[in-house]
Amino acid sequence: MGYLNQNLLLIPGLICDDEVWAYPSKHLADIANISILPMNEAPTMQKLAAAVLKNSPDKFAIAGFSMGGYVALEVLRQAPERVTRIALLDTSSRKDTQEKSENRKAAISDCEEGRFGDLLDRFIPQLLTPKHLKGPLGKRVRTMGERIGSKLFADRHRAMLTRIDSREILKNTNIPVRAIVGRKDALTSVAEHEEIAALAPLGRLSIIEDCAHMPPLETPQATTALLRDWMRYD
């Protein structure tokens, strides 16, 4: 596959809007036609993926961060013939554990009962390494979360409760799959990304040192370099 002029879809994460992809989208624009797909309507994971497909070109590469990785995998499930390659950043191919499902339900309750600010106070420290949490990046993530707001945050959790296991999808795909994860990610483990890379016949693993759950923001240069490598890998 050619390196230049590919269509590239970027899918944000749970607490994110377009800003999470600001650096990679700018610095990959020389090799790809980039679209950042919003997740503004989120009744189910299946309908989120269907909306992505409706608003996408016939063929495309797709990179999903965190919740965006779940959406990207569902896109691959629904239209494998349209996806040329997939990058999965700080995410998982497994269905939620019971504990994670219960945590999502608790987060929905917090949003519905006016405790969104408290929820962000607890959630954001899990996303960044300590050196970035108390600085400008921590404030930037908090502001982004406030832009998302409690209703959409809860809706996204509801959609994730509908997510199904995607490991079989990875086993059966013959496209390049890149699993990228921060070494210090407290939400999705290195082991989950090792599994993604091992399941896919053309899977590769990339670990970013001294980084937590948000490589596109915390280590944007390294993340962009890895995505550039993935875009050229056959």
Task: Throw out a few tags for this protein.
234 residues, alpha/beta, Rossmann fold, 2 domains, 6-stranded parallel β-sheet, 6 strands, 48% helix, globular
Number of strands: 6
Q: Count structural domains.
A: 2
Which outline best applies?
A: globular
Share of residues in helices:
40-55%
What is the radius of gyration computed over CA atoms, rounded to a whole number of angstroms?
A: 16 Å
CATH architecture of the largest domain: 3-Layer(aba) Sandwich
Spatial strand order of the main sheet: 2-1-3-4-5-6
Low-confidence sequence ranges: none
CATH superfamily of the largest domain: Alpha/Beta hydrolase fold, catalytic domain
Give the ordered list of helices and strands.
Answer: EHEHEHEHHHHHEHEHH
Given the helix and strand composition, which structural class is it? Answer: alpha/beta
Give the CATH topology of the largest domain. Answer: Rossmann fold
Largest sheet: 6 strands, parallel
Into which percentage range does the β-strand content fall?
A: 15-25%
How would you describe this structure to a colleague?
The chain has two domains: 158 residues, Alpha/Beta hydrolase fold, catalytic domain (Rossmann fold), CATH 3.40.50.1820; 62 residues, no CATH class. It has eleven helices and six strands. It has 234 residues and is an alpha/beta fold. The mean pLDDT is 95. The chain has a six-stranded parallel β-sheet, with helices on both faces. It is globular, with a radius of gyration of 16 Å.
